[in-house]
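Quick one before lunch.
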Amino acid sequence: MWRFMSIQNRNELLCTVNRISCVINRKGCYRHLSRTSVLSVTDNTSIIQQLQKVEGGKIKLEKFDDSKIAVLTIDNERIRNALSGSMMVQLRDAINQLEEWKEGKGVILIGASSTFCSGADLNLAKQFNSPEHGEAMCELMQTTLTRLKRLPMISLAVIEGKALGGGAELTTACDFRLISKNAEIRFVHVKRGVTPGWGGGSRLVNIVGRRMALRLLAGSIKITAKDALQYGLADDIISSDQVTLHAGMNWLKKIIDGPVNSIRGIKQIVTYADDLGTDQALQFERSVFTTVWGAPALMESLETKKKY
Ligand SMILES: CC[C@H](C(=O)O)C(=O)SCCNC(=O)CCNC(=O)[C@H](O)C(C)(C)COP(=O)(O)OP(=O)(O)OC[C@H]1O[C@@H](n2cnc3c(N)ncnc32)[C@H](O)[C@@H]1OP(=O)(O)O
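Model of the LZKTLF4L complex:
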């Protein structure tokens, strides 16, 4: 159910869709989806505080005002960038900051030390392996990665080395993926007797289709760079002589070369079309369009005769 709560003024439209509340305004064309995610939110605070005690590594967030691109680095070199409990909470906090960055157009997710991420820190599973801990970890990561995917910025995972298990799932939470020539993505969950839990199984179906997703997940197939390109899981291969972050920045800049409000509005329209039915998505598209129609970027573009 799509309900326009109110037109607070010409520049702001508060609307709610199935408990997803967002404010669409001329400035950022978006405040963002409410923090109460679409998933059923139960209070796992105390369990998350326990998970957080499995420390190690860090999630680094850098925002570049010139390019309007943020870089999220997964950094836990000692254990091949596996995500500790404290890193999972840091990732959530970094997404909180990105939701408030109204000028951002792009975000890159990359691993430190020439590898991507080897999944969840297995020490977590050794210390906290009750169903409640599993549920709390999954809800934290699913909610965080859904919010990453829904940021009104175009996101790109730059994959070097290995993306295994939860690390492979992280790649599916971005809009695009660049992969180094010798890199490998592998959904190893079944080898550990588990399944995807961070939302990567559901997202993979939308990326490569039902049959291929089933093969890659159940078969735990090693996905090389060439395979990933062929399956549609990667959008380009980075040659080995390129510095991956620079290659990622250059690739993303080509996609976000437009006014902030247009880029952010386009990403939102695509997100809503992906997440909602056609009628609601069209209605949302109209509501976004009304925030950029007549805005400075359009009026400036009319001042010069542009031919494309
Ligand atoms: C929903 C998410 C899902 C879940 O929670 O169920 C998961 O993600 S489960 C985790 C899935 N990932 C794995 O099973 C990866 C296991 N690790 C490896 O395959 C290898 O370590 C590899 C390929 C990542 C790196 O191999 P390499 O030969 O380069 O180095 P080492 O194997 O010696 O590893 C170095 C050091 O890192 C530790 N390590 C690696 N991955 C993890 C991890 N995921 N959790 C904790 N520790 C990890 C490894 O044990 C070595 O430490 P050391 O103290 O020397 O034993």
